[in-house]
């Protein structure tokens, strides 16, 4: 007969499920840093549905999503589930695991009690009309990440998963190694194999950002296995050896270049030319490490804001930049001329479906995918591992924790089918880019976005605006416009046509950009109509100041023409908002 509760590491007889289990729980009352949010508790082992499986967890993988779960931002995952009808007032996280099947629902056909498994983290309702009609479950409104958006993840003695999530554990891997790779490797698999005509194929060149990181280390191996050629991007030469052992044909140290970040404005001749020089030198470096003048057919992206302009530029004509995150920021800039003229594809990608996860796992079973485990922890250290992530002090690569396994290095029951290297990262490899929140998931649904409340003190544009419009004609020279600006102490002048219509604005930025790459004489010879920003961004005097600020920042502008009764009446500028901050 089953005991009420088994000690950690004391394995119940196969198939015997006790009523209670040890688990690390997050509760809303202690949302905060991982060290506060995670607490050990004893809870009931959950019942399973007909399509579900109860797995005795041997080891669990660590991912950033449970740092968010513990913080309770951007989403209170417990509250969200309670709203959806799930009663539990706690969250058990963990979206990667290795373990042994202890119980199966009556409709589960792919695993049986006693099977050693790893689990992918994609859950969805098998009754969803989209899924039933053969649609990709990744697009189903019921799709959830197990152990983050769902409860009963792997930081517990037993985890509740859907049968379709279970995949055979590679026999040659330890429990902690097997728990470390699925989330990142399946994500990388979909990015590289999931986009039909752009799927990686033999002979392709693939540029992999963060080649020594969790995703990148998987991507290098997947690209190599496809018979294609990976080039690894890293932040130091000390990681070259690691990436070469994983299959990179060559490596590039991103710190040799300094053209990263958002694109300069296309009107900024000097800035754009400098950027172009930087990105061309980078392209030449790709040729150098490749040993031939070829552009990457695929660019494997996740840093986002700082690298996307470069990725789009260096990607081959007809190639694909595939992106699953924006670690450095979400406002990626694209020079659309390169996108459309050279017919490149910028493709978003998120996790993977059941079929793709299994295709990835087949590679692991064949011994062709090293899990790239960078650090393993004990069960008691689950909050510590997350705290390291929260503080950005964790090692690159993939981390795991022991749960049921009684020691490190256990669980491997067979020889690897082939011998592949198990490279280790340099000891002092540290993160230089903080992980912003939220990363890739979850985006609030439309309903949640409606419910978001913001504070606004009710100030309106008319409370701060300057009355009166300072204008010039379209044919005024820059010299005249500059004088108006200086004499009237304004940062922009509205361009009015002969019939008194505002047709554009010349701002100081427009003036400065006009001077870029031209002589003073050339610049002075230009007319207001040549350099103005056409059209006139306006707001009504009664508009809330906060909405006017969003309008300005959204359009990268520093001022708006204010209208009253649809007639231009004045100007509101960023400077006015700054003055309000200091109470002037
Ligand atoms: P990781 O192990 O921390 O690796 C990230 C890599 O990015 C690092 O190895 C680093 O390499 C590189 N990097 C850091 N700052 C950079 C910068 N400014 N420019 C270029 N490269 C930079 O993280 P990961 O597990 O690979 O995950 C990467 C991102 O994907 C994260 O944002 C994660 O949340 C997201 N993700 C998304 C999904 C999904 O399904 N959508 C799934 C898994 C992960 P160097 O410093 O050596 O260049």
Can you describe this structure?
The model has no long low-confidence stretch (mean pLDDT 92). The protein is of the alpha/beta class. It is globular, with a radius of gyration of 28 Å. The longest helix has 22 residues, at 269-290. Strands 3, 5, 6, 9, 10, 17 and 18 form a seven-stranded mixed β-sheet that branches. The structure holds NADP nicotinamide-adenine-dinucleotide phosphate.
Provide the fold topology.
Blueprint: E1 20-27, H1 34-37, E2 38-44, E3 52-62, H2 65-71, H3 77-83, E4 90-91, E5 97-104, E6 116-119, E7 122-123, H4 129-132, E8 144-145, E9 158-162, E10 166-168, H5 175-178, H6 182-193, E11 205-208, H7 214-225, E12 229-234, H8 240-245, E13 250-253, H9 269-290, E14 298-301, H10 308-314, E15 320-323, H11 336-341, E16 345-348, H12 354-365, E17 373-377, H13 382-390, E18 398-402, H14 446-451, H15 461-464, E19 466-467, E20 471-472, H16 478-488, E21 492-496, E22 502-507, H17 508-515, H18 520-525, H19 528-531, E23 533-534, E24 538-540, H20 545-554, E25 559-564, E26 567-573, H21 574-581
Parallel strand pairs: 11-12, 11-14, 12-13, 14-15, 15-16, 17-18, 20-21, 24-25
Antiparallel strand pairs: 1-2, 1-4, 3-5, 3-9, 3-18, 5-6, 6-10, 7-8, 19-26, 21-22, 22-23, 25-26
Helix pairs in contact: 6-7, 6-12
Bound molecules: NADP nicotinamide-adenine-dinucleotide phosphate (NAP).
Share of residues in strands:
15-25%
Helix content: 25-40%
What is the count of helical runs?
A: 21
Give the N-terminus to C-terminus distance in angstroms: 77 Å
Chemical compounds bound to the protein: NADP nicotinamide-adenine-dinucleotide phosphate
Q: What would the principal axes of the Cα set say about the shape? A: globular
Largest sheet: 7 strands, mixed
Low-pLDDT segments, ≥5 res: none
Rounded average pLDDT: 92
Q: Could you say which structural class the secondary elements and strand pairing correspond to?
A: alpha/beta
Number of strands: 26
Write down the Rg.
28 Å
């Amino acid at each position: 007969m089953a005991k009420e509760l088994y000690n950690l590491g004391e394995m119940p007889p196969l198939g015997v499920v006790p009523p209670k289990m040890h688990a690390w729980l997050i509760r809303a009352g202690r949302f905060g840093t991982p060290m506060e949010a995670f607490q050990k508790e004893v809870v009931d082992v959950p019942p399973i549905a007909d399509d579900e499986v109860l797995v005795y967890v041997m080891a669990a993988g660590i991912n950033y999503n449970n740092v968010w779960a513990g913080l309770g931002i951007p989403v209170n995952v417990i509250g969200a589930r309670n709203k959806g009808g799930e009663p539990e007032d706690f969250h058990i996280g963990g979206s990667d695991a290795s373990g042994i099947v202890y119980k199966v629902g009556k409709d589960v056909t792919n695993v049986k009690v006693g099977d050693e498994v790893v689990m992918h983290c994609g859950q969805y309702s098998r009754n969803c009309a989209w899924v039933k009609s053969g649609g990709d479950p990744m697009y189903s409104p019921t799709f959830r990440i197990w152990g983050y958006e769902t409860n009963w993840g792997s930081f517990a003695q037993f985890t509740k998963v859907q049968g379709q999530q279970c995949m055979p554990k590679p026999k040659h891997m330890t429990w902690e190694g097997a728990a470390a790779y699925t989330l990142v490797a399946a994500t990388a698999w979909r990015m590289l194999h999931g986009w039909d005509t752009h799927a990686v194929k033999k002979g392709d060149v693939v540029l992999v950002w963060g080649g020594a990181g969790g995703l990148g280390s998987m991507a290098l191996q997947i690209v190599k296995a496809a018979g294609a050629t990976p080039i690894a991007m890293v932040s130091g030469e000390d990681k070259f050896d690691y990436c070469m052992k994983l299959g990179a044909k060559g490596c590039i140290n991103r710190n040799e270049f300094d053209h990263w970040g958002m694109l300069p404005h296309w009107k900024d001749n000097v800035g754009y030319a400098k950027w172009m020089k930087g990105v061309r030198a980078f392209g030449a470096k790709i040729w150098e490490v490749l040993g031939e003048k070829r552009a990457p057919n695929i660019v494997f992206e996740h840093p986002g804001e700082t690298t996307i302009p470069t990725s789009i530029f260096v990607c081959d004509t007809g190639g694909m930049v595939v992106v699953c995150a924006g670690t450095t920021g979400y406002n990626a800039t694209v020079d659309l001329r390169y996108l459309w003229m050279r017919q490149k594809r910028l493709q978003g990608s998120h996790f993977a479906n059941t079929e793709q996860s299994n295709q990835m796992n087949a590679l692991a079973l064949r011994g062709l995918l090293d899990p790239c485990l960078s650090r393993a922890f004990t069960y008691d250290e689950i909050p510590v591992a997350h705290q390291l992530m929260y503080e950005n002090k964790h090692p690159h690569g993939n981390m795991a924790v022991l749960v049921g396994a009684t020691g490190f290095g256990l669980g491997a029951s067979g020889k690897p089918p082939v011998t592949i290297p198990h490279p280790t990262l340099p000891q002092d490899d540290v993160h230089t880019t903080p992980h912003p929140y939220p990363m890739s998931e979850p985006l609030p649904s439309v309903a949640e976005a409606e419910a978001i409340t913001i504070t606004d003190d009710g100030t309106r544009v008319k409370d701060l605006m300057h009355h009166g419009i300072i204008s010039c004609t379209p044919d005024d020279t820059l010299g005249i416009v500059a004088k108006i600006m200086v004499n009237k102490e304004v940062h922009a002048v509205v361009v009015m046509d002969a019939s008194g219509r505002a047709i554009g604005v010349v701002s100081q930025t427009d003036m400065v950009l006009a001077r870029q790459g031209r002589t003073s004489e050339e610049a002075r010879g230009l007319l207001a109509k040549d350099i103005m920003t056409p059209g006139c961004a306006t707001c009504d005097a009664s508009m809330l100041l906060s909405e006017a600020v969003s309008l300005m920042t959204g359009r990268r502008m520093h001022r708006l023409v204010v209208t009253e009764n649809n007639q231009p009446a004045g100007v509101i500028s960023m400077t006015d908002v700054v003055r309000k901050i200091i109470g002037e």
